[in-house]
Write a structure and sequence with these properties.
- Two copies of one chain form a homodimer.
- By secondary structure, chain A is an alpha/beta fold.
- Chain A is built from 17 helices and 15 strands.
- In chain A, strands 1-4-5-15-10-11-14 form a seven-stranded mixed beta sheet, sandwiched between helices. In chain A, strands 8-7-6-9 form a four-stranded parallel beta sheet, with helices on both faces. In chain A, strands 2-3 form a two-stranded antiparallel ribbon.
- In chain A, a hairpin with an 8-residue loop joins strand 12 and strand 13.
- The termini of chain A are far apart.
Chain lengths: ~450, ~450
């Protein structure tokens, strides 16, 4: 195979991004502001700083600065595992016999096994700069917790991780991995917080949810000296850090004059999807491209395709600010049959706004279809994908097969956010045909929507 | 940090090796020939072809051709996951406060989690070309079995893997991973072969060994139609394929004019060590460098440092040809307390010869020291190393600390062969301080040496 375009496209170190890209600055229609839950007024930095680190708060509230310099200390951290490869899926193209060109940005070559490290490193750096000594966070599938454990080990910070109980049970090795990096792991809900005790009192057998774990982590951060809370998705400063994914992908494609027709990302809270599409969406909003953007979510947690665009809390205990987003209601808890991440009740506000305004499409997929796609992919491309990432693979294969039908030679780019090394019990369930394709019924969703806050904006 | 030398050095696709390098061609003193165990005469291709694929047999017996072209089909396969990064360990250097420059060639960014894919892809390609339909092999820690499972999925071949029982129990997820790629996994010793049944009859509670598993896989290959046996280490054709590691590392260092003073690799059967050092050793043997080469083996399986240089069988059932090598005796079974791979009783014949002739140093390390080094490394470099690879890290850190004492600014290169994602039970034992530092007693070794074949060359 003599290819003009290499199989693996690496940027050189000096081609790596020096700035993050803040998509909101290029949106004429901005996402609605975060609200203080007491006053229902837009949150100010002073409202958020007791919970979050200072610089991320500044970034969270900034919807006008297009390019935000990546501090040298974070560029150093990025150089420990970036640039991530952009891979031309020649083998998958051949196996599908499609005229489409398929590319994927692979963020799984670092030990955290996902893109989460891009924001973990940034947030730990800022915490260190601010003089904090520890951080608290939650993790679902474990990718974010691992990334934070690595970042905190690197910068010499303590870390407490509340891990969603059902995930901790499915993934004992994730727990050991985080502990090996020095983190303190607690299964959520736990008896270590008021929020956890309340949830356990209501439902002692709950498998937990990200919403519960967030409540516990926030409470711990607020009650601990020189400690703050860090979040790995949903918020706009996280998407800002993740813009390195899209910036690197775009720089690599630009070198070869390749313009994607379709960009696909899996979506839980939106960190990978938002980071991947940011610079491409900026071009589209400026009228410079016709690229289609597709979010792929699990049918078991369908915040885009069956959620409401409403103000909601980020957590179950209703202690966070209010975010206007696609949401299933803060009380929604996805079935424990669902493997992997993408279990959050809401969605990043910028992506929610783009979806609401018609710039972003979304689709929901059931688990076995997603794993079918994963197996098809791994046998020819060689990479064991995380269940999360496999949602994007599913859509990429579908779009490539559509091209086969129509004969169109479209360029498809998708985000392969991570690897599935710690998801082997899910693969075992798939191999054994014991995997469930649970989809919430309308009455399940109704129970979630009933937990939306009853405030003027939601009526 | 404004570095002249990037943190991660990637070759471009067109800089990747087109030829493997056969170090034996540049050795004036060649390794002794493989012997037919019946005749004690040098084995001919016809003796080996009932067991191994044709082209690898040719490569095995060829000690005169320096450069062997990598077929296009294998170059395609390599492009799916190579080039592997050469990483400058800036963070480790800083943490150690050493004047030494440390580099490592990281082979763990593919799903098999190690360098083993370099030979698995080659051997599966040749099997397919030869018209075979399946392969049989063994695996210890699971890296080789995973690599073969991936390669067989890629080329559409069946695969039976005999996995050393103690490893299968320590690493259930490795088993699922191989099965997910389509391999048929059998714990060894098993009742599926005569060799296995005999071993079980002698010792029903044995944890197995690579030697046993090899016997079972060879027997299966020979008895199955259009099937051959493949081995992931020890043999010279495997080292030939693994020379891509050293060739890529050397090409990357040459670009920056960097000459390593010390090259370090972990050693089980020798595949990684032999591949990494090959082109550098070639220069040394030609009098063009003074590089030191250090093999690091586990104290629990010390074939270099406490073994004998003798003709021995490759397997426990004594059905393979005889190889002159550093060996503990084919009946030696390392303690089941030892985590990870590097459990083989013997050592590649080329490396054994180089050691015997004084071109290669060796040292043995106990487990907790190795894991101490792994933790020190992972907290700053971010990569969770395989226990095997951590042996090389241990020696690299020791050499760097020696430089700190002497003030010498040496250049150290080591092979980081893989990741430890499937070794979390070992890390847990380390974290819990339940890890054993078992070292065989002289009488344990004597029992192994008693199994050496009683042939003229050994007297």
């Amino acid at each position: 195979m003599a290819n003009k375009i290499p199989t693996r496209l690496y940027l050189s170190e000096d081609e790596m991004p020096k700035y993050w890209y803040n998509l909101r600055a290029d949106m004429k229609e901005k996402p609605d502001p975060i609200l203080h839950p007491g006053t229902l007024q837009p949150a100010r930095a002073a409202d958020l700083e007791p919970v979050f680190c200072r610089e991320p708060v500044k970034q969270e509230l900034d919807d006008t600065t297009r390019l935000i310099p990546i501090p040298d200390g974070i560029q150093d951290f990025y150089r420990a595992y970036r640039p991530a490869p952009l891979i031309r899926a020649y083998f998958l193209e051949k196996a599908l016999d499609t005229p489409a060109e398929i590319y994927y940005k692979f963020e799984g070559t670092n030990t955290s096994g996902s893109h989460k490290l891009n924001s973990a490193g940034a947030q730990a750096f800022y915490a260190k700069e601010e003089g904090l000594t520890s951080l608290a966070t939650e993790t679902g599938a474990g990718q974010w917790g691992t990334a934070m454990a690595m970042a905190c080990a690197f910068y010499g910070l303590g870390l407490t991780v509340y891990m969603v109980k059902v995930s901790a049970e499915q993934k004992p090795y994730r727990k050991i991995l985080m502990e090996t990096y020095g983190a303190n792991l607690i299964s959520s809900p736990s008896n270590t917080t008021e929020a956890g005790r309340k949830i356990l009192a209501d439902d002692p057998d709950t498998g937990g949810s990200l919403g519960c774990a967030i409540s516990e982590a926030v409470e711990t951060a607020v009650k601990t000296d020189r400690c703050r809370y860090v979040l790995g998705s949903v918020l706009n400063h996280v998407l800002l850090h993740q813009s390195v994914i899209g910036l690197e992908a775009k720089a690599a494609l630009d070198k070869y004059g390749v313009k994607p027709d379709i960009i696909i990302g899996c979506a839980g809270g939106g960190s990978n999807l938002g980071g991947l599409i940011a610079p491409f969406m900026g071009e589209k909003l400026a009228g410079k491209s016709d690229t289609r953007f597709i979010a792929v979510e699990p049918a078991s947690c369908p915040s885009f395709t069956r959620g409401r665009y409403a103000y909601d809390f980020g957590d179950t205990a209703k202690i966070t600010p209010l975010i206007r987003m696609q949401t299933l209601g803060n009380g929604f808890i996805p079935s424990s049959n669902h493997a992997g991440g993408l279990r959050y009740h809401g969605m990043n506000s910028t992506l929610s706004k783009l979806y609401h305004d018609g710039h972003l499409e979304a689709r929901a997929e059931v688990q076995t279809d997603v794993f079918d796609a994963a197996i098809r992919f791994m046998k020819v491309e060689g990479i064991l994908p995380a269940p999360e990432s496999a949602h994007a693979i599913k859509a990429a294969i579908d779009e490539a097969l559509e091209c086969k039908k129509t004969g169109e030679k479209k360029v498809i780019l998708f985000g392969l956010t991570g690897t599935g090394y710690f998801d082997m019990t899910a693969y075992m369930a798939y191999n054994n045909k014991t995997m469930s394709d649970y989809v919430p019924r309308d009455e399940d969703l109704a129970r979630g929507f009933a937990t939306l806050p009853d405030i003027p904006q939601n009526r």
